[in-house]
Amino acid sequence: MSNDSTRFTRLPETAAEREDEERATREEVLAFWNERFGVDPETFADHTFWELGAGKIWIYRGDPPSPVEIEGLGMTFLRTRQEHWKPTLEAVQRFGHRARQNVVHLTDEQARRFVAGEDQELDWEGDWGYLVVTHDLAGAAEPVGVGLFVYGELRSQVPKGRRRDLDA
Questions:
Q1: pLDDT score of 10 more than 70
Q2: Where is the stretch described as Disordered (predicted)?
């Protein structure tokens, strides 16, 4: 089924099943999470992927009929119709603990700046691009959001409405 910007439509399983060349497939979404973050595709075995509009991918645990004429389904998961695919804050907070690569762990001060939306210099030897950002919470490393690492700088991708000043 082709994409309709007014309703949720399930992603095609493979490229052979899609009608729109720009549309992501389930196979590509799983490959992205596996190749970029090392998240095993089996993690999403009980989930379905849906698109509303151009490239806004949602994840849902279960299998409702397709297409679905509702305003929300599961949670936003990934943005795909841009040069580089971008995971959402919600996706990283829900599934980031399974990431085995492109994960950066922040100190208390770095984490405070990150959740406030500040960009900061960072000594990171890994890949450029989107990272799972973690910080110790309750004695364990927990994903707090998505960062973009370029030119020695970690750019906070925390949405403006979700930023917090923890120094106040």
A1: yes
A2: 1-24
Within 10 angstroms of residue 129's Cβ, the number of other Cβ atoms is 14
pLDDT over 60 at 59, yes or no: yes
Residue 2: what pLDDT?
Answer: 53
Strand order across the 153-156 sheet:
103-106, 129-137, 140-150, 153-156, 120-121
For the chain, helix, strand, coil in percent to 5 are: 25, 30, 45
Q: Residue 34 is part of which domain span?
A: 9-88
Same domain for 107 and 134: yes
Give the model's confidence band at 7: pLDDT under 50 very low, under 70 low, under 90 confident, else very high: confident
Give me the number of domains the chain comprises.
2
For residue 50, is it within any domain? Answer: yes
Q: Model pTM?
A: 0.89
CATH for 123: 2.30.130.60
